[in-house]
Amino acid sequence: SLLPRQVSGGEDEIQQLQKALLDYLDENTETDASLVFSRKFYIAQWFRDTTMETEKAIKSQKDEDSSEGTHHVKDVETTGQIMHRAESRKKFLRSIIKTAPSQFSTLKMNSDTVDYEDACLIVRYLASMRPFAQSFDIYLTQ
């Protein structure tokens, strides 16, 4: 599946990491103004990624459905789940866009805030989930 697995609490792990990273950026915007732009960039990129992943997943569902034709009901349920996950992610990102950075603290994770090293790890992990990073070995081979 292109969309990450669900974790307890109804949020997927990617969304939890996104919250942690945005929280870190928000806490440090006073010392580094460029983090405001980084925060906006990440939100826009994640929104775009969600749209692209959803379109790709639904297209693959349709391709499987037209080739097999026997698992139609299962595919419809799976497509519904994909759409539901995508909408919950977009809803989260929209709420972040509407929230001023200074008010973002109300949306913090329940756990402790992350430090610089943790933020770097989160960025690397989220970047590794992107399609280009996942297909990098293919590009090198070719």
Automatic annotation (TrEMBL):
Domain of life of the source: Eukaryota
Any one cellular-component term (Gene Ontology): Scc2-Scc4 cohesin loading complex
Organism, as annotated: Crypturellus soui
Family annotation (InterPro entries): Scc2/Nipped-B
Compositionally biased intervals (Basic and acidic residues): 55-77
Entry GO MF terms: chromatin binding; cohesin loader activity
Protein name: NIPBL protein
Region named Disordered: 55-80
Gene Ontology biological process terms from the UniProt entry: brain development; chromatin looping; digestive tract development; embryonic viscerocranium morphogenesis; establishment of mitotic sister chromatid cohesion; establishment of protein localization to chromatin; heart morphogenesis; regulation of gene expression
